[in-house]
User: Fold this.
Amino acid sequence: MKILITGTTGYIAKRLIPLLLDQQHELVCCIRDLMRIPEHFKNNKLISFIEIDFLIFDENIKIPSDIDAAYYLIHSMSTSSNDFSSLEETCAINFKKYVGNTNLEQVIYLSGITNDEDLSEHLQSRKNVEKKLASDHYALTTLKAGIIVGSGSASFEIIRDLVEKLPIMVAPKWLQTKTQPIGISDVILFLNRVLLRKELFNKSFDIYGPEILTYKKMLLEFADVRKLHRTIITVPVMTPKLSSYWLYFVTSTSYSLASSLVDSMKVEIIGKTNKLAETLAIKPIPYKKAVERAFDTIEQNVLISSWKDAMVNGTNEDKLSKHINIPHFGCFRDIRHKTVKNREKTLNKIWAIGGDTGWYVADFLWKIRGYMDKLVGGIGLRRGRTHPTKLQTGDALDFWRVIYANKEEGRLLLYAEMKLPGEAWLEFKMIKDQLYQRAVFRPKGLLGRLYWYAVLPFHGVIFKGMLKKIVE
Assistant:
């Protein structure tokens, strides 16, 4: 069977694709930037890639006519745009145009549960996308999920941050809102098993776990799994804006995502009873079991996808390829090099940088810079990294984004996603027995130049010390 995948680099798709490959399906994966093809999908004979941006219709781009089914997994929950609803609508309309001349039988759309009368802006947008995707050309099967619990999911990581950092929480009243969480493994099973089931064509189903819980109960049960005692006090006076800041400063989320989550968390997300799970022979696991499975995955370092790597954060919405060529004119530079005695060990150190490992020297200065970034609405250092020793193009790495990572070639290029009066790159490049470390900053206006000279005294400590530690 030939299947079209959208949202290829997203949290859901990166977990669904391996299952489809195991079943020997031929996949056509749509990706906005070919540089972001996940390493474990490259050179697979069953996968082909199409570079496509669904926000812009390009008549020169052709979808293979012989596709049988498609997964529509495009979402913009974490975008910084104030007009995300129209962006999602545009993507859906363009998708229909692209598949208009194909033999497509079924489109499977993963949406959100939208049963409450007073929907959040994001949930209303999901509902509108479902309407836009409806077509006489193909059958639409919509699966609507609530909170998805799994290693690397936004909800899981935010709950983890709250539980593990705060012994006592003074929290907003929306923690009493009821929801029906579902494990990521069950979501993938539902997506897989509705494939080309004709009795499910042109139908919509809520998918949900076996329990209805409040967000407060979810936090407490999470704490129970982690064997932590936590006290939660809810207060009625916290405004949505204050609630967003509360999530933003305590967790690793961006402010735009925090605002979206707060908006959605005021709405009850409870599924309408249906027999889909019974029809597909799926028995959804309880919330605690989903949390335990997530930690099993984390402890084994086999995290397949993370919302941090998939998100659009507002600072780097262009293609990664735009930043791969470091500019020369109008830039400030700090370039250093040292002789390498052991290439393999040196590269291993570079590929482990950031996250829990830190930056090898003056970590307190990096942390201070991260706190400063959070105070002005940036992402800070809390994103960490998805895997302790592996990096690939598109990964989040603290407040950097991986633009290029080729260990065999000996080159790692990072682009700064912190709030800056300009643009910044950090590059490590091995040339014979020399490791070159290059920090480049392209200032924007007078403020950018003042910023460079303000941090210049710290460069001798940070960059000189970092290079020395890496090659030791």
